[in-house]
Design a protein that fits this description.
Blueprint lengths: L1 H10 L4 E20 L9 E2 L6 E9 L13 E7 L6 E7 L2 E4 L14 E7 L6 E15 L5 E15 L14 E4 L5 E15 L3 E27 L1 H23 L1
Antiparallel strand pairs: 1-2, 1-3, 1-12, 3-5, 4-7, 5-6, 7-8, 8-9, 9-11, 10-12, 11-12
Helix pairs in contact: 1-2
Length: about 260
Amino acid sequence: MKKLVLAAMMATTPVIAQAVVIEGSFSGSIHDSYDYNNIFGYGAGHDQGVGQTITGTFRYDTGLAPQDRNGHSRVGHYATYGNDAEWLRLTFNINGNDFNISSNGIQSRYDGYDLQQVYLRDDIYNQDVFGIYERDYDHAFTYGGGFTNEFYGTYGNAWVADSLNDIVDGDGLIQSFEWLNDNITAYGSAFLSWQEKEYVAGKGFTYYESAWMGVVLKEMTVIVNPTDIPDPQNMGLMGLGLIGMIMLRRRQQQK
């Protein structure tokens, strides 16, 4: 009887699943920019803040991420368009202020231009590539009194490429590496833009706010943060196993 009870316990022991969160950070320096209304805090005009260091962070949840859309064993393309999956977040810190790509403070009116994407290339064309992209764009059409098209939103990316060092392994989302720009075999870049503009037929664009920034990356770090959680199916099996153990105990007492 003891053997049966032990077997029941072993069969119903919950298997631990992993919800893996990937977190990353990067830093670089501004090499060109345009700021229509001092959104970034360096003043209005061209090339404000050039040479200044910025930092950024990103994170994505592999449990919420979509399937690889590429199909190549050494190229990964994980992307969602026009939905609220929220499996990826990208944030820039500029002049002490955080610019979260997914939180532009504008009420969504047309949710068709959102993008969350991770792109990986493992030694294709003699180069490894890792890229994070996020876009949160809304726009609205108006036809009364002439065609009007309004654009609102933010776009950002941060990516690195290296023709010598193996910075990624395969096409899977679970990656971990530390990368430094050596200006010879490696290159890193980041881009951030913010736009509020309106197009009116016959009048062209009116820019209420607009800013963009190009960055040369100096470093990027990507780490894996697994969080152990019980698998729900195995939790149910464990419950059934406990019931079985109780029934076996009662039958043994009756004998």
